[in-house]
Predict the 3D structure of the following.
Amino acid sequence: MSYAYQQIAEEIEAQIMRGDLLPGDQLPGEAELASKFGVTRSTLREGLRQLESGGFVHRPSPRRLEVTVPQADQLSTRAARAMSLMNVTFRELWEVTMVTEPLAARLASVQGTEDEISQLQQTHSALVSAEGQMERTIDLDEQFHTQIADMGRNRVLGLAREPVVLLLFRGFSQIAPFAPKFYKRQIEAHSNVLGALRDRDADRAEKWTRMHIDDFWRGAQIAGLEDAFALAQRSVTP
Amino acid sequence: MSYAYQQIAEEIEAQIMRGDLLPGDQLPGEAELASKFGVTRSTLREGLRQLESGGFVHRPSPRRLEVTVPQADQLSTRAARAMSLMNVTFRELWEVTMVTEPLAARLASVQGTEDEISQLQQTHSALVSAEGQMERTIDLDEQFHTQIADMGRNRVLGLAREPVVLLLFRGFSQIAPFAPKFYKRQIEAHSNVLGALRDRDADRAEKWTRMHIDDFWRGAQIAGLEDAFALAQRSVTP
DNA sequence: TAGCGCGTTAGTGTCCGACACTAGCGCAGA
DNA sequence: TCTGCGCTAGTGTCGGACACTAACGCGCTA
């Protein structure tokens, strides 16, 4: 509140929240902004960095600074890292996932398009043929669930569940060695969820999802992970 | 990735995630850091601003820069503003709240201490005596639910629900004028939830919470808010 | 006339040096 | 030993500078 760079960031953020600046709007050059706020470019730039990392502005090209809506994946990554630093346990993650994913499935069964369902089928097929490959299985599992969440047309659910699921499913890498048959059970569960979605059967989709997540939990118990800390390791994205 | 200030922020953040830097650790002075990274103070400071706004470092005193875990309320505020900018609807918020709050109540009935229950009672009493005062009712309502969520000892749930509930309950200000009797119904519902928690009755606590949120939704329907956008207005915190 | 290539220019990322202000340390005095 | 004061180091801000390049406009050519 007291420092100039902070005031600048807050002021511009407030203008965005108020609607004075709309996503897509281009901001003036740094020199102009600096003189408008009565500070040096160095100071102004510190404020801009803060806004940038908050996701309120970004540079589509080096010469263009424009207002944006914070991106979902940026928020998810931040949240996941924060949770990891807070040493949240798999139990905490699981308890939440037990309510978000069944909801996602229910919504998807109502809102999902045929197109999305066949895309989901493709992801599922890829998962089937990845049996035994841990890293790939984790990625595809996460993708399967995220696709379902997207089908539900609920961005709030998307934001709330993404970091949680991200951290939880990473735990599969610690479960798989203890229970190799989990690959098969996972495939079977996904297959049942997919079928329910195809039939537009909300209750069945929800029920199978719940059982699926519950099964995951049994795996975590076998691996002794219940109260272990979940780690956010950045997966290599080449 | 390419700019120096960004590399610095990423490098330090990585050290924190990796555990090379632990929360509470003090960082060297800016001059020393700058020379360590081979950049000027100005450039280094831009990186620090980015870390600061990400919640990874903070200044307890102007002379001390230390590593921190991102604070929950900071993340919630960011998420709430992002959701608001994404023009999320009350329907989306409600659908998620319908699963988070009942879960919170269930966990609270198991994990909550007697002390916390009596604190909750106090919040409830304050709500009763605030009947008719909209702003105060909204604040106390949010506090009541947040206290329950905290009782559940699940930080993931806390992070996931906070921004959602924050935005949703603000909508009460648009419902109240249409349905003045909602004050009474809210008080009654809270009272029932409180009773269930006192009896450690998880099912009843969950059920009443669900009904309570559902009731809220009926109010939103009466006010025609179902697909209206939820706004994140910063409440004045003096 | 329309399309293309090239030079110019404005704007960004980074650097350098400087100064006021103050938190926190050490030292001197009681 | 405790208290008060000056000093120092470190932060926030300033002003100016320079290399590099994206974007614009201009003229040239077909």
